[in-house]
Amino acid sequence: MLSSFSPIRATPRLWRLHASSQAAFHASSTVFVKVGDKIPDLDVLSEASPSNKVNLAKELGTGKGIIIGVPAAFSPSCSNSHIPGYIASPSLASAGRVFVVSVNDAFVMKAWASSLDPESKSSIRFLADPSAAFTSALELTFDGKAIFGGDRSKRYALRTEDGVVKEVFVEPDATGVDVSTASNVLEV
Questions:
Q1: What is the pLDDT of residue 37?
Q2: Burial class (CB within 10 angstroms; exposed 0-12, middle 13-18, buried 19+) of 71
Q3: Contact 56, 67 (CB under 8 A)
């Protein structure tokens, strides 16, 4: 089965998918979102308040963008390295619209955004996926009951253009911080 894999660039712990790829190796399930897929057209994400719905298919329908999925707001890896790496990256400005999505409620995401980027200088938007509906549509959930109490998002990043996934970066162990870092995703 490995012969059907088409890696574009390999580093010791990274298989990176490009728009020209058809498949790639992942230690986790390979049934998730892939290059060429459209962003799910769902009104299930919220920003700052449960009533403020955000549809990423519409937000990212034109131009470039990045969706960053994290297992939990305020968790050490998410708060200390993963998202701060994006906020501090000089390449962020040319990435298009950038969204962080987590299976948390809108109030938690608002507080987390305020703690990481108090003046909103990065323009990153923090979105709640309280029922994991968006994350499930991407097939990027994992059983996080032992640590988080329920299903959570695998750590990932998706580069998009005109509403279509152009590159996929999914952590093979679901929660590590390697494949989906700003230095990998935002590199030119």
A1: 96
A2: buried
A3: yes
Residues composing the chain: 188
Compute CA distances 149 → 104, 143, 145, 152, whole Å.
11, 9, 4, 9
The per-residue pLDDT for 145 is: 74
The letter for the amino acid at 71 is: P
Decide if 7 contacts 15 (C-beta within 8 A).
yes
78: annotated active-site residue: yes
CA distance 86 to 90: 9
Tens digits of residue pLDDT in 36-68: 999 999 999 999 999 999 999 999 999 999 999
Annotated catalytic residue: which of 39, 78, 138, 157? 78
Q: What is the pTM of this model?
A: 0.82
CB burial of residue 14 (10 Å; 0-12, 13-18, 19+): middle
Distance separating alpha carbons of residues 55 and 135, to the nearest angstrom: 13
CA distances from 122 to 87, 144, 157, 177 (A): 6, 29, 17, 20
DSSP state of 92: G
- Give φ, ψ of 99 to 5 degrees: -130, 140
